[in-house]
Amino acid sequence: MLRTNSWRNDGRVRFDEIDLFLFGPKGVGIRSLMHRWIPNQHSRTLVLDGRRKRVRILAIQDESQLKHNINISRSRPHGVLFVFDVSCSETFYYMIPLLEKAKPIFNSNTIRYLVGTKRDLRQDEPGNADEVILHEAVMLAMRNLMRYRESSAVTGEGVEGAFMSIIKDVHKLGLRLETQSLMANLGSYMSLPRKGNETFHSILEHRPSIDSDSWSVLSDVASSSEPGEPRDLNDSDTHTTSDTEWTSL
């Protein structure tokens, strides 16, 4: 797995692979969260900015399993969602030292999110000792350079937004890395000795080709926004959010 949005070919269609880890202790509902987004599957294929994305999700429930999957993979996952239960403060406090210990495991190109599940159980009433205060969760995410989301696998609230937000962040990072790689290769080519009156313009005409949609930049997804329901590509229409077009295959 490459750090950029790496192309793969299954013989029929070209697509990018995005690997996500969904990590959380037992009881926080990571499998319910995963199956709410991709029922009875471990992957889902989307179209984002005209490029097909195959998103694969691995649910992990303990630290040893997390380290094991990191060690056996050829590279780090593109994104990790650290999940806790907003109605159980014990699962939140478990995350505080874990996030610190996990920092050396992932490189700077791994997008990380902190996700609070079971939002439907949040009462937002003062004096509830077992409930995680929203401000504390946001501050923990900020200290670890992460985004924070809340969701409910029961009602579906926030589920689509959490997954689509991290996927779009991975997509944007991949485009930046592709552009940097392209410019580095172009710079190396430009530094080679040139014959006669060969101009800079003529060199640019021979630069490697890249899809035009690779230069577009996705807008951030607001925490309160939710993309519409995906549809098959055979449907007559697609759903758009801002300048992003995506559907489910």
UniProtKB/TrEMBL annotation:
GO molecular function: GTP binding; GTPase activity
Nucleotidyltransferase listed as a keyword: no
Alphabetically ordered keywords of this record: Nucleotide-binding
Residues annotated as transmembrane: none
Basic and acidic residues bias locations: 228-242
Region (Disordered): 215-249
One matching Pfam family: Ras
Record field: compositional bias (Low complexity): 215-225
InterPro entries per record: P-loop_NTPase (IPR027417), Small_GTPase (IPR001806)
Family the UniProt entry places it in: Belongs to the small GTPase superfamily. Rab family.
PANTHER family, per database record: PTHR47978
Name this protein carries in UniProt: Uncharacterized protein LOC100908035
Organism from which the protein derives: Galendromus occidentalis
Origin organism lineage: Eukaryota, Metazoa, Ecdysozoa, Arthropoda, Chelicerata
